[in-house]
Amino acid sequence: MTTQEINDQSQPVEILYCANHPDRETLLRCNRCGKPICTDCAVLTDVGYRCPECIRAVQNKYYNADQKDNAIAFGVAFGVALIATPILGFLLSFFGFFFGSIIALMLGSGAGASLSQIIRRSVGRRRGRYLGAFATAGIIAGILVIILFIPFVGLNIPMLIFAALAISTAYPFLR
């Protein structure tokens, strides 16, 4: 038998439409709930393709933080930024642009990791989907408050380097 003869004898294929994008044809289904999904919606797992809703349901089992934990993360990050920003602003400007930038590169990531551990302990080691975002907002808000209300602390490049490294380290730790 040729492949043409096999194709002529096969059953007609039912055309499905993606549950999230009704204008897209698909032959793919979620292997957990059976909902039709397109290739943009499909998430590859170890056991096959799943829809975003099933992936989110599985991930929700790992997140146990309350709404108050987001506020705690924001408050702790805000408080630490309020205390650390004037000290760092003075020290980094004291060393000048070049050495201040080197110090910011060396210490920024460590400060972000330390801050994330402080936040994690303050929320009782619970995990939340948005803890990293609230901590980032707290750091930025604390830095902005200090820069706006304390005149001798100016925004300088080493300080921006330090803050960027601290934020980019703290965020993934708290995700």
Question: Can you describe this structure?
Answer:
By secondary structure, the protein is mostly helical. The chain folds into two domains: 9-60, no CATH class; 67-174, no CATH class. Helices cover 62% and strands 6% of the residues. The chain is built from six helices and four strands. It has helices at 3-9, 52-60, 67-94, 96-122, 131-149, 157-174, and strands at 16-17, 25-26, 43-45, 48-50. The strands form two sheets. A two-stranded antiparallel sheet has the order 1-2. Helix 3 crosses helix 5 and helix 5 packs antiparallel against helix 6. The longest helix is centred in the middle third of the chain and has 28 residues, at 67-94. It is elongated, with a radius of gyration of 25 Å. The protein starts with a helix and ends with a helix. The mean pLDDT is 89.
Helix content: 55-70%
Q: Structural class per helix/strand content?
A: mainly alpha
Cα-based radius of gyration, to the nearest Å = 25 Å
Mean pLDDT: 89
String of helices and strands: HEEEEHHHHH
Number of helices: 6
Largest sheet: 2 strands, antiparallel
Separation of termini? 56 Å
What is the number of independent domains? 2
Low-confidence stretches: none
Side-by-side strand order of the widest sheet: 1-2
Note the overall shape: elongated
Q: What is the assembly state of the chains in this entry?
A: single chain
- Compute the number of strand runs: 4
Q: How much strand content do the residues show?
A: 5-15%
